[in-house]
């Protein structure tokens, strides 16, 4: 177990309570679970936002930013202090609302307990000596947990937060407006609750309005659709005879919510009439109804039965009323502009496109309302999908026409189909038997009876975080290769993370590196021994050369080194590449392309431009590889890393040089004398003679000119995703890379417009990227998005021109000499290199981190901050964090002392072996 800086039993007496069962509200009953102290040791996000009030009034864990100590102050007392005067709403949410709600959520969601309940103890927060809030809520000594009193306490606390802020504003803000704002902020923190926690909070009528959850089955289902799109797109990249994957959506009561039209239509048909001389009171106030009526027959009668309306109005002609309701529902046509999109649909559509798929909307609406339909989709940022509408004179069944229209898209392979009607789903299932057919059932609306043949969704939302057995709840997906797959709008970057940073000395930094290298050396011994043992099994090799090559091939394709299928580099290729070196008993030359520069432009991926612990770990892995080989073949390997800082994209030379200088310094620290960095263009010049680089630049310019001519008339600022689709039809791809996938990658690593005054860089970047392709809204954000997209377009043209020039010249595709080719991207004919074991994210695309198990990895900066990681600084990188670690891997050994890494955590730091 990781060592803690916990106080002894005399100073940590707060206990959480939970039984093996839960009460009727879904909250745990009163039996000892474990101390809050233990929770703060193991839960990084909880530790970031919560402190424990120990006996004698001290707070634990001690705060590293305030050496003279902090104190717990009640919310009421704080509102009367001078520090509270003029506090901005943003700071109030960050330091008071968010810590309280987040702490409540984590305890309830992950441990089934409710904090801050009972005994009348006031809500308290941690204050620095100057009276400013640190961003941690304080759990007192007299709390009781579980049951109705906890829900009452939570509701009361939210009301008190609103009142406290109103008082700090001098009473100028109306109480109702402030309370509503607090509830909105709380709702923001309670999004995507796990179902059990949502059920517990829903037991309270006030808190029920804050609850937001999605079914795990929906999350798995939608992720399954995206995975099928990705798989088919990947196969199609290798075989262009395959059709492009497509997902087909119905519109009304599937992708679109006609709530406003439904309410208007209900009121129109509720007036006095035969069978209801006083009118239909339920329809006069339809906003009170759950569910609302729908126009199709099965759903209409479901609505009637669930509200028992036929028994209340037995003389009413309900079939005739449905006809009038349907007319009012669709007329006037302009009312269709009032529709809203179903939550998550815009993001899901963009995810499909970025996964390599096409989006088709197939609707029963007629051609005459196409403009109104496109308006609603465009307002949501969906501008690039194919929209199939019905002829105005349609007489054939909708289901039959839908199949016919989709079949006419002969270049598409239907992967999945979403619709709210059984008949449509059945027709599509029969026509496209390999497609996933999924039912949409929008909450709050009546519908057809459940269809056992089709899985069901309520929205198109997927969870932004997933639970794993070893890492708790983390942003999804784990080890994402693209930041576009993160739900940026839902992730948070707490400002107090910097207050908990650890600052290492040079000696401490060196000790961590030495320990990492020593462990890698032991692993190299194990790998070599395993290779010898493996070669003894089966028939012996024909010669000593073959035996040696087989040993080296065994090492190079081990799980800690090899990325991708081992079949990409069979023994026959290894004999071709390595036998000439082995015969001459000289080092085997291995060439790797990589280490261009850190992608820190937005601060969402990395915090700064210099290589951090991720690159250092990658170099240690390369040294481990070289040592493993040398234990079996004395000459070992000669590793050449071909850097490409200026090869594909224009970059500032000083940044490229600074990055390389730090890499060379790391080599000195790890003993990497057999690893050399060479600029790819300098090596080409040295190999093929003077003028090679200039000739390549000339060819790049020619290819760039051809690309611009091919793309003429396209504007990425107007309709980005549709423009990318149009670009794909203009012969601008290379053998291994499409222009669309290149653009969607580069758009997250290009310079972005500077943020407005007083806006943190990471907050500004989030606002741009969380809905990057939506160009309707606040002008400052949309203009910045347009500039960002244009920059990415230009970089993509230059990058693709470089790729095409390399293919034409073959200077960079053919070997410079006899050597083993390695690549960070797996590809047949060469070895794929896994620089950090299980981490699929390349070191320069993210931030170096060490997780709670001690594994060195790379993740995006925003993801790490959201998980409760804090910076660890070293003199090696000055102001840029050297690595990120969970806050639970740190301690403050005594009041007045700075934060430090736990000794046991330092001992655990190592590279993953798979």
TrEMBL record:
Transmembrane segments: none annotated. Residues 1-13 have a biased composition (Polar residues). Residues 1-26 are annotated as: Disordered. Gene3D superfamilies: HAD superfamily/HAD-like. This is L-tyrosine/L-tryptophan isonitrile synthase family protein. It comes from Pendulispora brunnea.
């Amino acid at each position: 177990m990781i060592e803690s800086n916990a106080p002894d039993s005399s100073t940590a007496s707060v206990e959480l309570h939970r039984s093996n069962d839960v009460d009727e509200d879904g909250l745990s009953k009163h039996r000892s679970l474990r101390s809050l102290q233990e929770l703060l040791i193991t839960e990084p996000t909880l530790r970031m936002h919560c402190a424990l009030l120990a006996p004698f009034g001290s707070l634990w864990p001690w705060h590293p930013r305030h050496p003279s100590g902090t104190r717990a102050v009640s919310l009421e007392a704080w509102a009367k202090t001078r520090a509270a005067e003029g506090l901005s709403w943003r700071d109030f949410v960050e330091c008071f609302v968010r810590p309280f709600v987040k702490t409540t959520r984590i305890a309830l969601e992950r441990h089934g307990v409710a904090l801050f309940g009972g005994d009348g103890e006031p809500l308290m927060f941690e204050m620095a000596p100057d009276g400013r809030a640190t961003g941690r809520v304080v759990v007192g000594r007299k709390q009781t947990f579980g049951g109705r009193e906890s829900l009452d306490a939570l509701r009361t606390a939210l009301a008190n937060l609103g009142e406290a802020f109103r008082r700090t504003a001098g009473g100028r803000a109306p109480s109702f407006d402030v309370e509503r704002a607090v509830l909105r902020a709380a709702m923001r923190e309670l999004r995507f609750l796990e179902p059990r926690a949502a059920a517990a909070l829903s037991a309270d009528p006030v808190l029920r309005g804050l609850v937001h959850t999605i079914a795990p089955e929906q999350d798995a289902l939608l992720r399954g659709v995206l995975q099928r799109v990705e798989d088919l797109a990947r196969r199609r990249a290798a075989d262009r005879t395959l059709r492009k994957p497509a997902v087909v959506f119905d519109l009304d009561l599937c992708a679109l919510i006609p709530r406003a039209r439904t309410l208007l239509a209900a009121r129109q048909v509720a007036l006095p009439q035969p069978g209801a001389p006083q009118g239909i009171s339920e329809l006069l106030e339809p906003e009170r109804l759950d569910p609302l009526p729908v126009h199709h027959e099965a759903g209409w009668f479901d609505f009637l039965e669930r509200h028992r309306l036929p028994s209340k109005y037995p003389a009413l002609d309900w079939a005739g009323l449905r006809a009038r309701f349907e007319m009012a529902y669709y007329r006037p046509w302009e009312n269709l502009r009032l529709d809203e999109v179903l939550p998550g649909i815009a993001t899901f559509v963009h995810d499909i496109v970025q996964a390599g798929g096409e989006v088709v909307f197939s609707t029963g609406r007629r051609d005459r309302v196409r403009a109104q339909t496109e308006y609603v989709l465009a307002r949501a940022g969906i501008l690039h999908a194919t929209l199939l509408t019905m002829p105005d004179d349609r007489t054939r069944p909708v289901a039959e026409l839908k199949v016919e229209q989709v079949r006419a898209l002969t270049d598409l392979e239907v992967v999945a189909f979403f619709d709210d009607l059984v008949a449509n789903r059945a027709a599509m299932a029969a026509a496209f038997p390999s497609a996933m057919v999924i039912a949409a059932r929008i909450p709050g609306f009546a519908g057809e009876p459940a269809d056992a043949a089709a899985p069901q969704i309520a929205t198109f939302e997927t969870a932004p975080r997933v639970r794993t057995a070893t890492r708790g709840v983390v942003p999804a997906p784990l080890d994402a290769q693209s930041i576009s797959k993160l739900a940026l709008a839902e992730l948070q970057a707490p400002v107090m993370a910097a207050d908990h940073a650890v600052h290492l000395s040079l000696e401490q930094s060196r000790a961590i590196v030495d320990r990492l290298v020593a462990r890698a050396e032991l692993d190299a011994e194990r790998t070599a021994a395993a290779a010898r043992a493996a070669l003894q099994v089966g028939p012996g090799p024909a010669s000593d050369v073959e035996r040696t090559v087989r040993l080296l091939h065994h090492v190079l394709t081990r799980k800690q080194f090899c990325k991708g299928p081992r079949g990409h580099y069979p023994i026959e290729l290894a004999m071709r590449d390595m036998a000439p070196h082995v015969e001459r008993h000289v080092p085997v030359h291995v060439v790797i392309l990589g280490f261009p520069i850190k992608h820190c432009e937005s601060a969402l991926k990395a915090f700064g431009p210099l290589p951090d612990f991720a690159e250092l770990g990658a170099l240690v892995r390369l040294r481990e590889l070289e040592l493993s080989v040398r234990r079996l073949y004395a000459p070992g390997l000669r590793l050449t890393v071909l850097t490409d800082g200026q090869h594909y994209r224009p970059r500032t030379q000083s940044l490229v040089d600074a990055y390389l200088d730090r890499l060379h310094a790391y080599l000195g620290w790890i003993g990497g004398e057999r690893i050399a960095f060479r600029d790819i263009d300098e090596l080409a010049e040295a190999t093929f003679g003077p003028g090679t680089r200039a000739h390549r630049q000339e060819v790049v310019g020619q290819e760039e000119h051809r690309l611009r001519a091919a793309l003429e008339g396209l504007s990425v600022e107007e309709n980005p995703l549709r423009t990318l689709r149009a670009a794909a039809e203009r012969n601008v791809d290379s053998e291994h890379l499409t222009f669309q996938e290149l653009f969607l990658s580069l758009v997250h690593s290009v310079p972005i417009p500077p943020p407005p005054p007083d806006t943190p860089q990471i907050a500004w970047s989030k606002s741009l990227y969380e809905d990057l392709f939506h160009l309707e809204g606040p002008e400052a954000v949309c203009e910045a998005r347009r500039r960002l997209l244009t920059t990415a377009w230009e970089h993509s043209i230059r990058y693709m021109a470089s790729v095409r020039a390399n293919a034409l010249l073959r200077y960079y595709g053919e070997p410079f000499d006899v050597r083993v080719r390695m690549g960070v991207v797996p590809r047949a004919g060469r070895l794929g290199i896994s620089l950090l074991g299980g981490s699929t994210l390349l070191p320069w695309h993210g931030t170096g981190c060490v997780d709670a198990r001690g594994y060195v990895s790379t993740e995006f900066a925003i993801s790490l901050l959201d998980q409760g990681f804090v910076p660890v600084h070293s003199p090696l990188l000055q102001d840029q964090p050297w690595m990120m670690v969970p806050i639970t891997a740190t301690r403050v050994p005594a009041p007045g002392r700075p934060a430090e890494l736990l000794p046991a955590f330092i001992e655990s730091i190592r590279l993953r072996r798979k």
